[in-house]
Design a protein that fits this description.
The complex is a heterodimer of chains A (about 450) and B (about 1050).
Chain A lengths: L1 H8 L3 H14 L1 H7 L4 H12 L17 H9 L3 H9 L1 H6 L3 H9 L13 H12 L10 H47 L12 H7 L1 H24 L17 H7 L4 H4 L14 H8 L21 H15 L1 E2 L4 E2 L8 E2 L12 H7 L4 H5 L16 H10 L8 H14 L7 H5 L2 H4 L2
Antiparallel strand pairs in A: 1-2
Helix pairs in contact in A: 3-9, 4-9, 15-16
Chain B lengths: L5 E3 L10 H8 L8 H5 L2 H6 L4 H19 L6 E2 L14 E9 L4 E9 L2 E7 L11 H10 L9 E2 L2 E2 L2 H18 L2 E6 L5 H13 L3 E5 L6 H11 L4 E4 L6 E5 L13 H6 L10 E6 L4 H5 L2 E4 L2 H15 L10 H17 L3 E5 L4 H14 L4 E7 L6 H12 L3 E7 L3 H4 L3 H9 L3 E6 L11 E4 L8 E6 L2 E5 L12 H8 L6 H13 L5 H7 L1 E3 L18 H9 L5 E7 L12 H5 L7 E2 L4 E3 L1 H7 L3 E3 L5 E10 L2 E10 L7 E6 L27 E17 L15 E3 H6 L2 H4 L4 E4 L2 E4 L19 E6 L8 H9 L7 H5 L8 E8 L3 H10 L3 H12 L6 E7 L8 H5 L5 E3 L5 E3 L9 H5 L6 E2 L35 E2 L5 H14 L11 H5 L5 E5 L6 H6 L4 E2 L11 E4 L1 E3 L5
Parallel strand pairs in B: 8-9, 8-16, 11-12, 11-14, 12-13, 16-17, 17-18, 22-28, 24-27, 30-43, 33-42
Antiparallel strand pairs in B: 1-34, 3-4, 4-5, 6-7, 6-18, 10-15, 19-20, 20-21, 22-29, 23-29, 24-28, 25-26, 26-27, 26-29, 31-32, 33-40, 34-35, 36-37, 38-39, 41-42
The chains are: A mainly alpha (about 450), B alpha/beta (about 1050).
Chain lengths: ~450, ~1050
């Protein structure tokens, strides 16, 4: 609770003022009852306590709460007192047989609302003030201007280069003119300018020198062989493979901004050879309540120029469609459409790789092989996944023997044999063919 | 002595002048690349319209096209679950305990599933109920993915819905019941307590119902004998782990005798322990794997077996029986009798003769001996069929008394000798329903086909032995629109329960007595602690000898006798559409994809029948026509079987299926036609037919290049009295004129690797405990995605089995023993017969089985010759094979002294030329995702299940613990229930494998070559001491 309050205090003053301005200028109806409500504090409280089940403008586990007080007053004739009682202990109200309480309880599948006896009147006032407050207008974009500023040095560089080029051209022209003038002077003075004998052109001289020709052709042959070899060796290596997926899933938002642990979704990486593409029910653990991304006005927003809020919301809808989730009714329809992801990391069949060996036993970070996943908007193959790449790592990486009884004896004996403190995976036998090929 | 005997795999090898054997020894790959054939054919070359110029054009174009096509990678899609089941983690296997009960095989098993697909059958180690999974049970997982399965209920060949099916059939059933006609339910033996109750519920609703249980291969005689003696229908249980002297009259108890599953107990006593091991005497006609494992095998005609058994009874129990045996046999029976008497309650007598008197005699002898092995109180319930009721049903059908026939788990049109009569009867019924998972001979004649699920998709329960229960649970959702028999019966009985609920209710009420159903389901088995079996006291009084006398008088020798038997790889023929089983070489004849008439050498000579090996090592055999009682099977191929009793022939059941099988799996002849009166012994007449049959026989393939010293064996007496250097010598070479063992580093060409750190895997194979059953071969098939190559390729020696079980025949053929024998000859008669014997070692050879897989040599010859370093050694002792690196030079296979490397001559998956399970999406579901499916042109071989050892290591690493002994397993060692194969880490000094390596019997295959293998064997010890 406190933390949230502090965070609110650190909000940019400007935005605060802006929000206040809007509230006081526009919403007169709400002012009657929530005049003394602090919208900012209300928002904090709402996010901390209510947001798990309620949205302002959308049904979720509980009803939508925008203008709830006004709505209840107008439609049901219920006042603040009823609301206070409901919020602090809805179960008691239901038990007491309050007709609207029972009705709403039944309407939402008899899901009991958590009691909040700790909320003071002022807290509730603040929350209600927040629910009554109109949504803030989108914050004016300042990005474009900032970008323009940032772009200036680039342009000036070009100008400088252009100016220099011009200068050089002028200088060259001047030199030519000077030479011409000098020649004219010489002509006028009768001095004969020695005209040098024409030498054989350079290319002819080159062509006549057989040794040079040979060396050059060998060089070119070698160079072209190098490039051809390089080209052929990259055939089948899909480093940087970044296919378009059926649902645009952003690792940047999930693993980066929201800092979700990789193995929360890819849980089988701990125990299995496969990291596993998460099944859709894992997505729904969170996406049951997260049905949209924060808009650009939010401090938590992740939307970018390229991918708008509408775009991301559309992708979440694709998930709902695939898993068969009816967001309006908050239930599964049972009609599923499994997602056909495009597999990015493809090892050939004859190579055995086990995630759990690397993730659980060796304790290697996922990023070591998969790159900065938390920055990837679209997942791509970071590593070449070639055998050379595997082996290099095995040669350089020490075996993680800490607190692992399995390694105690073998590590002690082998490190003595090799005369090292720490064995690499290669010394442990990690280069043997049969460890990966069977 | 260990190696004074000559071992041979085929009679052909005994022929000194056989050029073929010599050729095969010299040639690594028997098939030459036919360049001469092609280039030598001038006409073809000249008439070819493709000029050299064209050829180069094509090559150039196709290379360019291939290069271009290779530049673009395919887009691979990945589809995760929408809602992932809690218990499934992609990449991690789940195991479920279940029970297989198909009427022939009953086994408690553990099913390995990956991503919800069953991919392998393993032994349920909790279940000591009945043996372990045999080859057929191991292969049963492939039947699940058979694309010839019935996909839904059918009526007259057309798909219908289950609603239509149940409403139509229920209506008809009530009509028939009301009209008073019989409703016959002809089923396999379910041995299921809940099904029994269910059928009685059905009978309450339809009072005319008549449940007939039918076993395709009948044990009726034994069941009748037991019933008469003990009052309940079942079979006596035998615990061979307590047997010190075993005398068997034609009982293939290591095979399928009385339901099988006795081999693990048997093997326990075959390993010499404190100088003792069991002694096993086998009287039999065909060479069975039981006879092959015996210490003393006497080839006897079935009719003589009867008399011999009766005589044995009289010598042991003491009551005279009429008749007399031939001199040699009389001696053998007397000595067997004296051995039995000496062993007393440690002895046991068993018989496989389908004769109620023979079975009674055995029960009486065992009871008289008070045999510890013999356990009549624990009744085996997995065979229930009664010949008379089946015969009665057929006559009822033909007289028109049967209104409806419901067939479940049985295929009488295939397995009845009088199938034609059954077909006639079937026409007279108003309603006929066949519950089957595959269209078979019977279902093609019935009006309705009710598609049933495979056992891995069904619920069920079994009482295998009285008080020992097993549960069957689904391990995958039904692949097709199927309903199991019991669920339909519930619908017919208008019971709204599902069968799974029904089982649960039944168990809670009758079986569990308070224990948890979920625990029983988890374990797959439940052993009742309450002895509900009332004391099965002998109903009949003390042995009277009547049965023995009746037996003796029924023994009439009359011409050629045929013994029908089942192969361990095919059983009763239910699984005929299983390519793994078809390709499985029979342990004795080493022939796959066929059944055949086994004939003794003498009879073959008399009839002019031949076996010959052709240039590529393939075996050809004559055809004969076999006639029993007017029924003739034409063109039965012949295999000359060493050890076959003279005057007898053998033919296996289970082949010759024609309906519901892919064409290339329709192999062999249907011997059920000769199975008259459900008697496995028939009088037969044989006439030679024209033509030669081409077998897919691997017995001459992959020979060890004429190197001896492969099998080491000794007798118990020598083993007990002599030093191990006498009977298990290590080959020696001369170093500075001093004989030095080849194992010494001084004479080694190679630097020794230090393998003392980390794991060092070894596999131990005990030749005494190995019965040659072949469960390991199929387990290896399933674990390692070994392809099926088909009959023609098998014949060309291109089988892909990573693990083969070599079968060696041997006879006292060394000069030393011959001299001894010659010296001992006395008198004319003896000299005539014994010289005759010495001339023909193939009459009654001793047999040894030896599983051979890659020996994972520490100094591997294959590794040094690979030009691309595709095969390399790992520190853990495994010889690695990197398929992606292999370019297919086959140098490694040439240089391998053990001939264990297999070359992929073709692409065996997604190739219409090899239309087996790997050629359809359904069949490919059985593939183990942890093992690469090999492509054309690469070498492959046993990896010592590196995927399994790596998994064990990783599990230990993840848990942060050391690996416990017994955790490391290969597919073969896990499948071996006989304790013949033990796998482990020899650097763990406390492990069982480390102990076994120090055993005196330990030896390495071809030690003299100096390859230092990581697979070692234990010298075979035969208990030749006549007690």
């Amino acid at each position: 609770m406190r933390q949230v309050v502090y965070r609110i205090i650190t909000l940019p003053l400007l935005r605060l003022g802006f929000v206040f301005l809007l509230i006081f200028s526009n919403n007169l109806g709400a002012q009657d009852t929530a005049a003394e409500g602090d919208v900012a504090a209300g928002k904090a409280l709402f996010n901390a306590n209510c947001a798990a089940c309620h949205r302002l403008n959308q049904k979720m586990t509980g009803p939508a709460l925008a203008n709830v007080e006004q709505r209840l007053y107008e439609e049901e004739g219920l006042d603040r007192e009823w609301l206070n009682a409901w919020i602090r202990n809805s179960a008691a109200l239901i038990e007491a047989g309050d007709s609207y309480a029972v009705k709403i309880w039944n309407e939402y599948n008899q899901t009991a609302m958590t009691a909040y006896p700790q909320l003071t009147d002022q807290d509730i006032t603040n929350i209600l003030a927040y629910t009554a407050a109109p949504p803030p207008a989108p914050v004016a974009k300042t990005d474009a201007a900032a970008q323009a500023v940032a772009g200036e040095p680039g342009i000036s560089n070009q100008i400088i280069l252009g100016a220099l080029a011009l200068l050089f051209a002028l200088l060259a022209m001047a030199l030519y003119l000077v030479k011409q003038t000098l020649n004219r002077f010489a002509e006028a003075k009768g001095i004969e300018v020695k005209v040098e004998e024409k030498r054989t052109p350079l290319w002819k001289a080159f062509a006549q020198n057989q040794f040079l020709v040979l060396v050059t052709s060998i060089f070119f042959l070698l160079a072209s062989a190098y490039f051809v070899y390089g080209y052929f060796m990259q055939v089948g290596i899909d480093q940087g493979y970044e296919p378009v997926q059926p649902i645009h899933y952003s690792h940047r938002i999930h693993a980066g901004a929201n800092a979700i642990e990789c193995k929360y979704c890819h849980s089988s990486a701990r125990v299995s050879k496969h990291s596993g593409i998460p099944s859709l029910n894992i997505c729904m653990n969170c996406h049951k309540s997260i049905n949209e991304v924060a808009g650009p006005e939010s401090e938590y927003t992740n939307v970018t120029e390229e991918y708008s809020k509408e775009f991301y919301d559309g992708e979440i809808q694709k998930l709902y469609k695939a898993v068969g989730w009816d967001a309006a009714e908050q239930k599964y329809t049972g009609e599923t459409q499994p997602v056909k992801w495009v597999r990015i990391h493809n090892l050939p069949d004859f190579a055995y790789f086990n995630h759990s060996q690397h993730v659980s036993v060796a304790g290697i970070e996922c990023q070591t092989c998969h790159g900065p996943v938390e920055e990837m908007e679209i997942m791509y193959q970071h590593a070449p996944l070639t055998m050379g790449w595997c082996i290099n790592c095995h040669r350089e990486t020490n075996v993680n023997v800490k607190d692992n009884e399995y390694y105690t004896k073998i590590h002690e004996e082998l490190s003595k044999k090799y005369g090292v403190d720490q064995l690499t995976a290669a010394q442990m036998g990690g280069l043997e063919c049969g460890k990966c090929h069977y | 002595m260990s190696s004074n005997k000559k071992y041979w795999k085929s009679v052909e090898e005994l022929n000194e002048n056989s050029s073929i054997v010599e050729t095969l020894k010299q040639n690594e790959f028997v098939q030459e690349i036919p360049t001469d054939e092609f280039l030598g054919d001038k006409d073809t070359l000249e008439s070819s319209s493709t000029s050299r110029r064209d050829f180069l054009k094509y090559v150039g174009f196709s290379t360019a096209a291939a290069t271009l096509a290779a530049c673009e990678g395919p887009v691979i899609k990945s589809i995760p679950y929408v809602v992932q089941p809690n218990e499934i983690i992609p990449g991690v296997a789940n195991y479920y305990a279940t029970t297989m009960a198909n009427g022939y095989d009953f086994a408690s098993v553990l099913v390995k599933t990956r991503e919800g697909r069953p991919i392998k059958i393993e032994n349920n180690t909790l279940a000591s109920t009945k043996g372990v999974a045999n080859a057929r049970v191991n292969a049963s997982v492939l039947d699940l993915y058979d694309n010839m399965r019935v996909k839904g209920p059918m009526k007259a060949g057309k798909q219908i819905s289950w609603d239509e099916f149940t409403s139509e059939t229920s209506k008809k059933l009530s009509e028939i019941s009301n009209s008073g006609k019989q409703i016959a339910i002809l089923t396999q033996t379910f041995a299921s307590p809940s099904t029994k109750q269910l059928v009685s519920e059905f009978a309450e609703k339809y009072p005319t119902a008549n449940h007939v249980q039918y076993d395709a291969v009948s044990e009726s005689a034994a069941l009748d004998a037991y019933e008469q003696k003990y009052g309940s229908r079942g079979l006596a249980n035998y615990d061979f782990s307590k047997a010190m002297t075993i005398v068997s009259f034609g009982a293939d108890f290591l095979g399928d005798w009385q339901g099988g599953g006795f081999d693990s107990g048997y093997s326990q006593q075959r390993i010499p322990n404190n100088g003792k091991m069991s002694r096993h005497i086998q009287f039999e006609a065909n060479m069975s794997i039981t006879g092959a494992n015996s210490d003393k095998r006497i080839p006897v005609k079935p009719s003589e077996q009867k008399l011999a058994l009766a005589k044995l009874y009289s010598y042991v129990v003491g009551s005279s029986v009429p008749g007399s045996l031939s001199e040699g046999l009389e001696k053998a029976v007397r000595s067997a009798a004296s051995e039995i008497k000496k062993a007393g309650s440690n002895a046991v007598v068993v018989t496989g003769l389908q004769d109620i008197n023979a079975q009674k005699v055995v029960l009486e002898i065992n009871e008289y001996l008070n045999s510890k092995v013999f356990d009549p109180k624990t009744t085996i319930l997995t065979r229930q069929g009664k010949n008379e009721t089946v015969a009665q049903l057929i006559s009822d059908m033909n007289s028109g008394n049967v209104g409806a026939i419901i067939i479940a788990g049985a295929n009488p049109m295939y397995s009845l000798p009088n199938a034609a009569e059954f077909a006639e009867g079937l026409k007279k019924t108003e309603l006929s329903v066949s519950f089957t998972s595959k269209e078979d001979e019977t279902s093609s004649l019935t009006e309705y086909i009710a598609a049933t699920p495979h056992y891995l998709e069904s619920w069920g329960d079994v009482e295998i032995k009285s008080g020992h229960y097993g549960l069957t649970q689904p391990t995958i959702r039904p692949l097709f629109d199927t309903k199991q028999f019991q669920d339909v019966v519930l619908l017919w009985a208008e019971n709204t329960m599902s069968y799974s609920d029904y089982i649960k209710a039944h168990w809670n009420e009758n079986v569990l007595s308070g224990s948890s159903f979920n625990d029983a389901l988890h374990d797959g088995i439940f052993v009742s602690t309450t002895t509900n079996s009332e004391e099965t006291a002998s109903v009949e009084s003390a042995p009277s000898g009547e049965a023995a006398r009746a037996l003796a008088s029924s023994a009439k020798a009359d011409g050629m006798e045929l013994t029908l038997y089942t192969k361990i790889g095919m059983g009763d023929g239910q699984q005929a559409n299983n390519p793994w089983l078809q390709e499985f070489p029979d342990p004795i004849t080493r022939t796959s994809w066929d059944n055949y008439l086994t004939v003794s050498r003498a009879d073959a000579d008399a009839l002019g029948l031949v076996n010959e090996n052709v240039a590529n090592g393939g075996l050809n055999g004559s055809y004969v026509n076999v006639t029993v009682n007017g029924v003739t099977i034409e063109n039965v191929p012949v295999i000359i079987q060493p050890g076959q009793a003279k005057g007898t022939v053998g033919l296996s059941l289970g082949y010759g299926r024609t309906t519901g099988l892919k064409e290339q799996l329709q192999t062999g002849v249907n011997a059920y036609k000769l199975y008259q009166n459900f008697d496995t012994v028939q009088n037969v007449s044989i006439s030679k037919a024209s033509g030669m049959h081409e077998f897919a026989c691997v017995q001459l393939h992959n020979t060890l290049m004429g190197r001896g010293d492969i099998i080491k064996e000794t007798s118990l007496e020598i083993f007990n009295t002599k030093d191990k250097h006498y009977w298990n010598p290590i080959a020696e070479v001369s170093l500075n004129h001093i004989e030095t063992p080849v194992t010494s580093p001084d004479v080694d060409l190679w630097e020794e690797f230090d393998r003392s750190i980390g794991h060092h895997f070894n596999l131990s194979i005990d030749l005494n405990a190995c019965t040659g059953c072949g469960a390991c071969v199929i387990a290896c098939h399933a674990e390692n995605n070994v392809p099926v190559v088909g009959k023609t390729e098998m014949r060309r020696s291109r089988d892909m089995h990573w693990l083969r079980i070599d079968r060696y025949y041997s006879s006292q053929e060394s000069f030393e023993s011959d001299n001894k024998k010659k010296d001992n000859i006395s008198g004319l008669s003896s000299s005539l017969s014994e010289f005759g014997e010495m001339e023909n070692p193939a009459d009654n050879p001793e047999v040894a089985f030896q599983p051979v897989m890659c020996q994972h040599c520490n100094h591997a010859p294959c590794e040094t010759v690979c030009p691309v370093a595709a095969t390399a050694h790992g520190r853990q002792g495994q010889n690695h094979m990197a398929y992606n690196r292999c370019v297919g030079t086959r140098y490694c296979a040439n240089n391998c002294p053990y001939k264990v490397r297999r070359f992929n001559w073709f692409l065996y998956n997604k190739n219409d030329e090899f239309d087996y399970h790997m050629n359809n999406d359904l069949g490919r579901m059985v593939i183990n995702p942890d093992v690469t499916v090999r492509s054309r042109g690469v070498m492959e071989k046993c990896s010592m299940c590196i995927q399994k050892t790596q998994k064990t290591i990783l599990d230990a690493k993840r848990d942060g613990r050391t690996v416990k002994d017994g955790e490391f397993q290969t597919a073969c060692s896990a499948a071996c229930g006989n304790g013949a194969m033990v796998f482990g880490d020899i650097n763990d000094s406390t492990s069982k494998i480390a102990e076994l390596k120090e055993n005196d019997r330990m030896y390495h295959l071809l030690e003299s070559v100096g390859t230092k293998p990581n697979v070692f064997y234990h010298t075979k010890v035969r208990n030749t001491t006549e007690a």
